[in-house]
Amino acid sequence: MRPALELAAEAAAGADLAVVKAIPRSPDRLGVELRRPDGGMLAGQWFRHSGEALTAWDQTRRSAPTSGVRLVSGGLLLQPGGADRKLRGLHLMLATPGAVLVAHRPEKRAVLRQGAHRATTYVKVVRPSRLAATAAAARLTVPGVATPQVLAVDEALGTVTCAELPGRTLFDLLADPTLTDGWIEKVGYAVGGAVRRLHQAAVTTDLPSHDAAAELAVARRWAALAAEHHLLGDRADAVHRLLAEAEEELRVGTGPVVLLHRDLHDKQLLVDGLEVGMLDFDLAAFGDPALDLANLLTHLDLRARQQRCSTERAQRCAAAVRQGYGPVPEDWRRRLAGYELATRARLACVYAFRPAQAEVAAQLVRAPAR
């Protein structure tokens, strides 16, 4: 049986599209982000079985009859204009003048931007079953760290509307050649301080617990998905070795239990001058602070490997983040190393579903521990 991603890429090429990213749903189904010839993005899904594809096409077309939903040869469902049978509010919100689709993960969630420059808002659209948790996460606040203000929650549409935060993402700043490495160090120091304040925040919101075992389970799940889709090749042993090493390092004990972002990376951090804001607390949980720091530091390493910035810039930023975070107990060393190993393995598997980035991300499983 041919791998799903290979077949999806073949179907996309036949429609003059390219697969940028795939989200595995099963060995026979993928969510996909596609690139048009003009560089524009398009959401879709790929189905191995024609019956499932036809059902999805019919239901999606009915949910947004004017969007131009298409089912092309090879089982590829194209979902322009926010067409989505599970996110019924998306198509309606996009009909609002000035609304722009920012991201769309079919049948899971989407984000759109609305309004003029000085009154811009962002709207997250989710399935009805996820709305309460999404709204609660969006309302989390951290003293000394900017977070988007929740303006409205619409149960009928499944939407959470938030005000725009000022600033640029750390992801963008790293790639800006007009900024000096010295300035990036200052930014990194400010980011480290913001992460420390996140971990010091007192929160009464009911959030799940996420310990080392849970994080290893997430990484192993991605490794299993990548293997199931035949994407690891000769890297499988290296991925499993990293996971075994991560487990060994994380056996040393548990750290303090604090508020975690749980998906902390450079695209989630907005910097305005040296004021730092954080986005997207959907995965927020209580757990070991070393996990957030490891995730961020590993992403900085990845950006250098992606040639988003120089290795020196990434390393200086990472060192500044550590310095800005401040002193940590000695027992952090092995826990931080363990979470970094788990993150490297997970990212190598996540990026295996992104054809243009898979080989670069694979370097993470070959890289020596830092």
Automatic annotation (TrEMBL):
Task: List the SUPFAM superfamilies hit by this protein, alphabetically.
Answer: Protein kinase-like (PK-like)
Q: What Gene3D superfamilies does the database record attribute to this sequence?
A: 3.90.1200.10
Which InterPro entries does the record cross-reference, listed alphabetically?
A: Aminoglycoside_PTrfase (IPR002575), Kinase-like_dom_sf (IPR011009)
Q: Domain Aminoglycoside phosphotransferase, which positions? A: 109-334
Q: Which Pfam families match?
A: APH (PF01636)
Name recorded for this polypeptide: Aminoglycoside phosphotransferase family protein
